Amino acid sequence: MSNKDSYKRKHRYLDNQITRLEKTNSHNRELITNLKKKKLKLKDKLHTEIKQFGRHDKEFRNALAIGS
Hints:
The chain has helices at residues 3-24, 29-53, 58-63. It has 68 residues and is mostly helical.
């Protein structure tokens, strides 16, 4: 499994957790905020990895579509 797949899987998991908490547990804003920060950091790591391996790689460019 590539790092891209791992990032996408973790990103999707965090997104689902945030959605669930926002619907059922909106009083715990700190937890929701922390999960959103983790999600952004994960996306930043993906962007960094994309830059390291080159912008011309179509597979990595398609990975940018997560969370957008």
